[in-house]
Amino acid sequence: MPDTAVTTDKPREYEGEKSPGSRTTSRRKMRLGPTLKLLTLQVLLLIVALAMWQAAVEIGWIDPFFVSEPTAVIERLREVLVDKELYVDVAFTMQNVLVGFALSAVTGVASACIMYKFPLLQKVVDPYILALYSTPRIAIAPLFIIWFGIGPASKIALVFSLCYFIMLLNTYAGLTNVDQRLISQVKMMGASDWFIFRRVSLPASVPWLLSGTRVGLGFALIGAVVGELIISEHGLGLRISRASGLFDTTGVFTYLIIVAALGVILDQAVRLLEKSLSSWGSATAK
Predict the structure, then answer these.
(1) Do the beta carbons of residue 221 and residue 72 sit within 8 Å?
(2) How many domains does the chain have?
(3) What is the distance, to the nearest Å, from the Cα of residue 119 to the centroid of all Cα atoms in its chain?
(4) 4-27 pLDDT, tens per residue?
(5) Which of 66, 164, 253, 258 shows the greatest Cβ crowding within 10 Å of its Cβ?
């Protein structure tokens, strides 16, 4: 009788098969690859621009009295970043930005929904909205100071006037650009107008709303700084105004860099919100 060998060895995995952990790691690497490449290119572009700026100053093509130089700006930036008063001014500016934008977002979205619900009202107020939207609110910023004083209220009012129409028009455009065939199909199933608005129209307008948010926050930061440039007790705009009055171009560029950094932070926050709300909109619309 032939010998039979019994083995307890476990079957080996196929060479091409990967564990779930390795597949997850591979997906992460695939996602991080393009991001790191893009970040590297962005940093290189910044380095090249600063090098060209510094070289132009060293060669004598431009006068540092008018445009300063990167080494001086970086040194001043190091000095102001350890100044506690700077963060008081940053907080003041960001308070004006966020409060003004929040008020404009709430009222702008609500106004768009009302205009969407009542088309006749939209036709009546449309020319007045466009007229007010075309008015240069920066030019009437001194009026806000007369009406609301030199405190935060005048800056918030200026931010509101800049962002309200952006949120209103973007939200209304999103609501009116929903696929009407989809709405008709949902109506044929017996859905109410409120159900259609909540589960179809509103989720479909999320990309438009987020686009308005990104643009609006940029204008909100501009409005807050401009309001502080005119007259203010605190804020980054006040610091820029003081540096400009002293012909301190290094200080002006330093505070402009801080304002730009705040703008980038706000934009990245909206991008994160966009990922979250876009997935919500897709799930809700199903």
Answers:
(1) no
(2) 2
(3) 30
(4) 444 445 445 444 455 555 555 555
(5) 164
CATH for 226: 1.10.3720.10
Instruction: Tell me, yes or no, whether 220 lies in a domain.
Output: yes
pTM of this structure = 0.80
Instruction: Judge contact between 122 and 115, C-beta under 8 A.
Output: yes
Q: Which residue has the tokens 């909100």?
A: 220
Helical pair 119-134 and 152-176, crossing angle rounded to 10 deg: 130
Query: Chain centroid to CA 103: how far?
Result: 16
Q: Is 157 exposed, middle or buried (0-12, 13-18, 19+ CB in 10 A)?
A: buried
**pLDDT value for 192:** 75
DSSP string of 57-76, one letter each residue: HHHTSS-HHHH--HHHHHHH
- Whether 48 and 91 share a structural domain: no
> What tokens were used for 135?
């008015």
200 lies in a domain?
Answer: yes
Quote the tokens at residue 209: 């709303």
User: Which of these, 74, 44, 47, lies nearest to 251 by C-alpha position?
Assistant: 74
**CA pair distance 172, 153, nearest whole angstrom:** 28
- Burial string for 232-263 (b: 16+ CB within 10 Å, else e) reads bebbbbbbbbebeeeebbbbbbbbeebbeebb
The C-alpha R_g of the chain, in whole angstroms, comes to 27
DSSP sequence for 228-275? HHHS-SSSHHHHHHHHHHTT-HHHHHHHHHHHHHHHHHHHHHHHHHHH
Q: pLDDT band at 186, cuts 50/70/90?
A: confident
